[in-house]
Amino acid sequence: MHRSSIREKGDKLAGKVKNICEEKIVPVIEEMGYEVIEVEYAKKSDGMNLTFFIDNDNGIKIEDCEKVSKAIDGLLDEINPTDDQSYILNVSSPGIDRPLKNDRDYKRNLNKMISVTLFAKEDGKKTFEGKLTNFDKETLTIEIDGKEKVFNKKNVAHVMPVISL
After folding, report:
1. Does 3.10.20.90 match the CATH number of domain 3-92?
2. Has residue 98 got a pLDDT over 90?
């Protein structure tokens, strides 16, 4: 089997595992009062990892991760999303410096400093830092030195909060 065929098969399985977990496991986690930011099924140095990134308005503590892990472990065994392939279950906080990916992330960061990295240079730069002043489905707007700059989201590689200590 060619390397690209193996990768495609792995990508297909990862997508299947993710879809099953989003359909069957995420609602259970949400009923517990947590938001699931992302479900990831990926190969790491210690083997395949199934990771649920959770958040809530009060932040996430290790006890929250343990509670969710215990609540979904048996259900995952029952559902068997990996078709008996072994994996390591992780439940984690996405961290305060996680990229902004959805409307809730953007809303949470309105009027806060963010860093916008583009796929290609614009005005001679790929990275811009400013206060997030607006966003919609297709664009985001930041204020830089009193001037607004609008970015089309399809040109944005990632958006990160600026963490100042």
Report:
1. no
2. no
